[in-house]
Model the fold of this input.
Amino acid sequence: MVQRVARAKPLGRRGARLLVVDDEPVVVRVLQRVLAGHEVVVAMNAKDALGHVLAAPTFDLIFCDLMMPEMSGIQLHSEISAAFPEQATRMVFLTGGTLDVDARAFLHSPATRCLAKPFDVADLLALVGEIEIELEN
Done:
């Protein structure tokens, strides 16, 4: 199924600085297209994403797949929380499929934001818009 994709339009002069972490190339390409008005850094796995955050912990939002091989989104969140708690609060988890008990408990935490795959483009853009408003204030 082909989904029409809206493009994010940055508010004001500054687009958001976003990190996209997903091991599915199709998801990454869709997010890059949808978020084309912003600075988008891509990591195809959690270890590379952690490297990006450790090198420059200045992401406005981090879109992260919850279930990835080697290091999960939950493990990445834990590592980022330890080093840069502010960055951990800016994580939005993308998930699809069956979740184990730990993943469900993690996602039900009040501070955890999640978009289900396939995600609604309007919901994605609303999250980016919210962070842009914060950045302008």
